[in-house]
Amino acid sequence: MLRKLLWILLISFPLFAILCASFSEENPTDRRVLVLLDDFAIKSSHSLYFKSLESRGFDLDFKLADDPKLALQRYGQYLYDAAILFCPTVERFGGSIDVASFLDFVDSGHDLIIAADASGSELIREIAVECGVDFDEDPAAFVIDHTSYAVSETEGDHTLIASDDFIQSEVVLGSKKIEAPVLFKGIGHSINPANNLVLKVLSASPAAYSANPNSKLSTPPSLTGSAISLVSVVQARNNARVLISGSLSMFSNWFFRSGVQKAGSTTKYEKCGNEQFLTELSKWVFHERGHLKAVNVRHHKVGEVDEPSIYRIKDDLDYSVEVYEWSGTSWEPYVADDLQVQFYMMSPYVLKTLSTDQKGRYYTSFKVPDVYGVFQFKVEYQRLGYTSLSLSKQIPVRPFRHNEYERFIPAAYPYYGASFSMMAGFFIFTMVYLYTK
Fold first, then answer.
1. Tell me: the pLDDT tens digits for 250-278?
2. Is 245 exposed, middle or buried (0-12, 13-18, 19+ CB in 10 A)?
3. What Pfam families has UniProt attached to this entry (predicted)?
4. If you count Cβ atoms within 10 Å of the first and of the last residue's Cβ in the chain, which end, N or C, has fewer?
């Protein structure tokens, strides 16, 4: 019996350690990452990218995409905090994993990186479609650009794109500017402009188009110009993040080490921007940057410190909240000037921009409106590249009690005067009427 208990403990301890190290609000950086490969050769050919993740503390678990023992969950708990799909040709995942498994994985708040290419399977395309991205339907299509190709690497190959059309966001790509263009060779995709959850991080030039480079164009290309996205990101409503690239090669060691000279430019870079671009982008995807949390939400009457259970109309109150950003290792004060609070009942009766002390604390004061009912303090904060904040706190507001009204209301003095003047006039009229003939 004792030996059996020891075996159970030995088997369950690794699982317990995995679960304890998983994603949490206090330590939001993903740590255990599943990497699915078409072939283990990719582990060597893309080793620089994997080493950059491991150097930042990520535990990468490499598996073949068709491994029959593949699993994302055990005993109802996810074994991984994030997943990287470097398996563009896989037709069917191994084990019990399918498209729905990865969609549930993202719906549960976990992050995902998808790299496709021109030989991408329907399986990978289906996952991308569910994330809001549509790859070119032609399986032999490449992004072609006759003006922004890399002339220093493969002479005459206009499918080797040198793109520097980056998203203008420091929180997504870091504060250090990416000087060199990024090399890209693969398939393009489009996003729905009405979908505000998907962002183009790297776009093609206006002269680019998507087509089969080995055949003549008989019909207009389905994707053209800057509408072609080379790399996109998705931030779901639950703050899970997804990176979608149309090129697996751009993550490779060969691209990381390659120099680049863009067509029409005399500047030749000894090293392209792929390593910096993808490293900074992975920091955002894995919540090392742009992850916010709000704590210590407080409200009380002016001059008091305790939070009341109910407010009275026309009370003066103070509201405050502390907001911090995860830096990858610790929580740092988040400083902005666009955080707002609503005092809400069916619609916002009060909308105030919060002031900040530059140390993470946001605060404001306002007067409770002259309307009673059940109100909410609401903070709905959405900013490009940052996780969204949605805070709400309910509080009832009552009218004045009968003994709390002012004895004489200044605004009613004309009515008081009218009443007394009428009584005085009636008295004078009566006296005149009675005592005069």
1. 999 999 998 888 887 778 888 999 999 99
2. buried
3. OST48_MD, OST48_N
4. C
